[in-house]
Design brief:
By secondary structure, the protein is of the alpha+beta class. Helices cover 52% and strands 12% of the residues. It starts with a helix and ends in a 15-residue tail after the last strand.
């Protein structure tokens, strides 16, 4: 009987902890959504719910509230630094991460390569539904393409979407920054699948620790290099239309 009396409270505490953790994640997601939508009434209601979760002690409710708010902070921080459509870093996130990587490269006396990508299509933010869907598919394909090209992203490399049709990657690996290899991969971006080529231009700038440059300087240099091989802009096809076969890759 004594053993049962010792084990049972432990099981109860474990159950409450699991409920607390699950509830904190749920509320954090709802809070983020309410904040993004500017729904003040919903925010107030969710915060009020955190104060009166049934079945928990006062200490457990406090921990639940703290955990939910901490999850919310992490969620909002992620939203502030990542592009929602592609899952890549947004411009702010890329500039921050790339700057840290350049600091490491300078400290370790290591070269790095800044690869700039420009989709050579018209991306109209006010396009019709069909064209908007085709645009989003193209952007997601580009995000997947960059993740395949730079598999060490998040550790040694940074990849991001800088604007409507601009992307960039920073890598210390010279083999990941071969323009010829990148353009060849862009012709068949989804290996083993029938998919149109990515209409992309590429420019590369080199970071030299002997003559260090800031990330914005490298971006300008790489963008100029991409402009030198510019081809006519291709209108994006609407959803359901046949893929263009005359996309010219730089």
């Amino acid at each position: 009987m004594e053993l049962v009396s010792v084990v049972r409270p432990s099981g109860v505490r474990s159950s409450h902890a699991a409920v607390s953790a699950a509830r904190s994640l749920e509320v954090a997601g709802q809070l983020r959504s309410a904040i993004m939508e500017g729904d003040d009434a919903r925010i107030a209601r969710l915060l009020s719910d955190l104060l009166r979760v049934r079945g928990l002690t006062k200490g457990q409710r406090v921990r639940l509230q703290s955990r939910a708010l901490l999850n919310l902070v992490h969620s909002l921080r992620s939203a502030a630094l990542n592009d929602e459509l592609t899952g890549l870093l947004n411009r702010r996130g890329f500039m921050q991460t790339a700057t840290r990587l350049l600091d490491v490269a300078l400290r370790d006396w290591q070269v790095a390569q800044l690869v700039y990508f420009k989709l050579d299509v018209e991306l109209d933010e006010a396009a019709e539904v069909g064209q908007s869907c085709a645009r989003n598919v193209l952007l997601r394909r580009m995000g997947n393409f960059l993740r395949d090209l730079f598999p060490s992203y998040g550790v040694y490399e940074a990849i991001g979407r800088l604007g409507a049709s601009e992307f960039a990657a920073l890598t210390p690996l010279i083999e990941h920054a071969s323009r010829a290899a990148i353009m060849l991969r862009a012709r068949n971006p989804e290996s083993g699948r029938e998919a149109p080529a990515l209409p992309v231009r590429v420019g590369i700038a080199r970071f030299d620790p002997l003559v260090p440059a800031a990330i914005d300087e490298l971006l300008e240099s790489a963008a100029r290099a991409a402009e030198e091989v510019r081809e006519p802009v291709t209108p994006i096809a609407s959803a359901g239309s046949a893929p263009r076969s005359d996309l010219t890759l730089a």
